[in-house]
Amino acid sequence: MTAAALERLHSEASGLGLLPAGAAAIRIKGLEKSFGNNRVLRGIDLDIPAGQFVAVIGKSGCGKSTLLRILMGLDEPTAGNLRFEAGNGAESAPNARIVFQEPRLLPWFSVADNVAVGLGEGVPQDVVRAETAAVLSEVQLAEKADEWPSRLSGGQRQRVALARALVSKPGVLALDEPLGALDALTRISMQELLNRVWRELGFTAVLVTHDVSEAVHLADRVVVLDEGRIVLDLAVPHPHPRRHGNPALAELEGQLLAAILGDARAG
Ligand SMILES: Nc1ncnc2c1ncn2[C@@H]1O[C@H](COP(=O)(O)OP(=O)(O)O)[C@@H](O)[C@H]1O
Ligand SMILES: [Mg+2]
User: Fold this and answer.
1) Which value, in Å, is the radius of gyration of the alpha carbons in the chain?
2) Beta bridge partners of residue 223, listed in sequence order
3) Does the Cβ of 234 fall within 6 Å of ligand 1?
4) Separation CA 177–CA 58 (nearest Å)
5) Which of 5, 21, 157, 243 has the most beta carbons within 10 angstroms of its beta carbon?
């Protein structure tokens, strides 16, 4: 495909609202969520600048997935405010996508067709082909485009799920323990991949993880939730990409673990 043809496809895609106006900032104020008497989120204030990578950690059941669901518009807050802002500070409806722990692929669709699902209906076939091929090569699966999901490894399936989320060029990407089901080595290579696509594509990322080492490896900032509140908001001021085993990061991991475990003496 010529550069001019690609340019034309991109402008068509923009016209369809497929390409992002850019990463969105997220402003959360006084956010509360109750299920009956269960007060899950008890006043969350969080300002996430456009393009930042934030990790959210905390004990099981502390409300991490609930927070992501509200961010994605999949659930309504009980109280408080959530807004997304475009680059100029104006309120905007972002293109926000989510990746879960399970890839949730359609088994009777090829890899490429599973990714194309992320573009939705009504997109011209040539745009679908170009965007799908581009994102599959971004996640290093170009050669698997015509394969069935059942023929892929767990890590490859999760990369297809990531490609499906990225193909519409989201301004916000939410990730709910996306690497939680993978073995340790696959996890590490997926962390490298996630870090690279985030740096290349520039979306705002909100990653829920159980893994403090993953959080400090990937995030600019790690937020610890406990009993529905933010108990620690820790900057990770280290350049990307980061090396595993960096002692400064290990120090931050210690502080985070202490906050999660509620141990005031440690850290
Ligand atoms: N749809 C729901 N209805 C009732 N309770 C829910 C619902 N979703 C989550 N909860 C409750 O909210 C709390 C937080 O859940 P969740 O956000 O999934 O925690 P986490 O992701 O941190 O493990 C739990 O006590 C859970 O039982
Ligand atoms: Mg959860």
Assistant:
1) 19
2) 56, 233
3) no
4) 12
5) 157
pLDDT in tens, 254-263: 999 999 998 6
pTM confidence score: 0.90
**81 C-beta closer than 6 A to ligand 1:** no
The full DSSP string for 113-134 is HHHHGGG-SS--HHHHHHHHHH
Domains and CATH numbers, the chain: 3-106+168-261 (3.40.50.300)
CA distance readout (Å), 142 to 70, 96, 148, 150: 33, 24, 13, 17
CB of 33 within 6 A of ligand 1: the answer is no
Compute the distance between CA of residue 109 and CA of residue 126 in angstroms, rounded to an integer: 18
Structure confidence at residue 151 (pLDDT): 98
CA of 62 to the centre of ligand 2 (A): 8
Q: Is the CB of 35 under 6 A from ligand 1?
A: yes
Residue 214 dihedral angles phi and psi, to the nearest 5°: -60, -40
